[in-house]
Input
Amino acid sequence: MKVVSRLEDLPHGCPKPVATIGNFDGVHLGHQVLVRDLVARAKAAGGTPTIVTFNPHPLQVLAPDNAPRQIQTLDQKLAVLESLGIKLAVVIPFDLVLARTSAREFAVGMLWERLRLEEIYVGPNFAFGHRREGSFNLLREIGSEKGFFVGRIHQVQFRGSRVSSTAVRQALLSGQVALARRLLDRSFAIEGRIVHGTATGSALRIPTANLSSENGLIPRAGVYVTLMTVDGKRHKAVTNIGVRPTISPAGSPAPTTVETHILDFSEDIYGKTATLEFLLRLREERRFPGLEALAAQIRRDIARARRYFSCVESIAPALVS
Output
């Protein structure tokens, strides 16, 4: 997949862009339906399946205090889009100048004159341009004027509700990682680097890998069944997200940590990059009367995780393989 941040940098020989446009945070089931349909249409037309997106999210520029935490990093988003068949990604830097661009100016000046659209498909709630003044009908009108086709992809529902980035975000913030997996059609994952912690886990003979992640969104505090990928290998694990109330001094603020115990693993992975996938929430994080009680609970968490993996391997092995 070719990635460009300016339309002026579009590669030569990019035939008939068949495009979609949006933020695509999470690339959830609804996005996937749109993108797969787009890829199929591009193939039928002999065109290039293309996505136009923005970085950062517009609200991070226009109303940073109200901006949603992003489900994925830009690299994660682009990787999923590439796996769906997108061949060209135009990542437009979003700033105040772009925010003041009228809908017609954006559609004509950027999408038509620079990208030279063949076709464009958008979701049911698509809006664009200054103050979101542009609508599907306006884009279709401009397409009729300039000679490109504008199509609309209908919404996807799950359990009677529209699949959306907001729904995914709410599921993660409430700890419902299994629900998030259904909305995303894959396990929610964060990425980062393994860093040194306080070594409390090693002292308890339950060593943990501390993940420093750049993801803007992590699930609600608690204990989870997870998978950690390091050096291309996927390992079964248990992860605690939270402030470690049993260990942290009472009354003092403590940073949120992401600590993972990898089952049956003893390699040194400090400094390496890792991906952490969330499969199931086991319990809330809570304070224990001492380290011995904490260690006993962690051993119970590990036993539950092993039972979960054993069950999943018998009915859905692809989930954990």
Observations:
- The domain at 2-158 is CATH 3.40.50.620 (Rossmann fold).
- The radius of gyration is 23 Å.
